[in-house]
Amino acid sequence: MTVNVTTATILVVDRKASLAIEKVNDSSERFIEAVGLSSYSTSQPTVISYLSIFENFWNQLELYQKLKQHDKMQQEFINIAAHELRTPAQSILGYAELAKIDPQYIEEQTQSFTDAIYRNTYRIQKLTKDILDVTRIESNTLRLNESKIDLKKVILDVIEDTKLMVLQPESNQVKLELKNMVNAGEGVVSHSDGIFVVADKNRITQVISNLLENALKFTSEGVVYVDVAKRKKQEQDHQEEAIVTVEDTGPGIHPEIFPRLFTKFSSKSFSGTGLGLYISKNIIEAHGGKIWAQNNNGQGKSGASFSFSLPLN
Fold this sequence. Notes:
Layout: E1 7-13, E2 17-23, H1 31-34, E3 35-41, H2 44-101, H3 103-108, H4 110-138, E4 147-150, H5 151-164, E5 177-181, E6 188-189, E7 196-199, H6 201-217, E8 223-232, E9 240-247, H7 276-286, E10 291-295, E11 304-311
Parallel strand pairs: 5-8
Antiparallel strand pairs: 1-2, 2-3, 4-7, 6-8, 8-9, 9-11, 10-11
Helix pairs in contact: 2-4, 4-7, 5-6, 6-7
C-alpha cells in the first residue's frame, strides 16, 4: 500500500521573494501531477515569515548541537574526575592497609609514607576545590576579597610552597629549578622593588599555582621561570599593568588544544581535568585583567609561556 505524504518546499531568494510548492503525489513521475498548490510572492511580510521559520529551525539545530557537545564534555569530565579521584583514593587506601598489616615497615619508611599520603590527599582536595569553583563561576557567585598586595611577594611565596608540595613527577628524576626573574623587554619596565596591585590574594595565588603546576606537569627537563614586571597598557597611555609570565621548557601547547585552551575540560594529557586554566581565566577577568598563552617556538626556545595581566591603577 502506497501512502502519499504532503510536504512543502520553500525557497527564499535575497529576502525579497519566496516560492512555496506542495508535493502531493510521490509516485507520479510528472511534475504537474506530483505538485499541488504553489505560490510565488514578493510581499515583504510573507517573505519575512518564511525566513523566520528557517531561522528558528537553524537556531534549534545549533542549540541541539551545543547540547550534544555539552553532554559529551560533561560525560568526559565525569570520567576524568572519577579517574582523578579514584587514583589517589586507592593509593591512600593502600597505604592505610599497609599500616595495619605492617606497622614496623611504616615506622622505617615514615617520610616517604607521609609524603605519598600528603601528595594524594592534595590531589583530592584540589579537584574538590576546582569543581566548587566551576560551580561558582557558572552561577555567577564567584566573589573577590580584594586588598592591596605585593604581587612579587605573592609569587615568591607560591614558588616556595610549590617546591614544598612535592608536585614534581613521582619518579623525581629531573630537578626543576623555579626562579623569580624580572627582565626588561620591549615596552616592559623592570622593577626590583615590590609591584603592588589591588586583588584577591588567595585567588591570585590560586592562578599562579595553577600555572606553575601546569608547567611542571608538562616539563620533563629544564627550568620553569616566573617573570613579573610592569608595562604601559598602550603607547601614550599613563595607565600601567602588571604582567606575570610562567615559562616552561616542555613540548609546548598541542595545536588541537590551543583554540580551546581556556575552556572547560580542555586537556590532552593522561592526568588532570582541564579545569585549572578555565578557572584562572575567570579569576583574572574578574580582576579586570587578561590571560593568554603562546608557544616559545620561533624564539630559539622550546616550551610554552602563560601570562596574565592585572591593572595597577
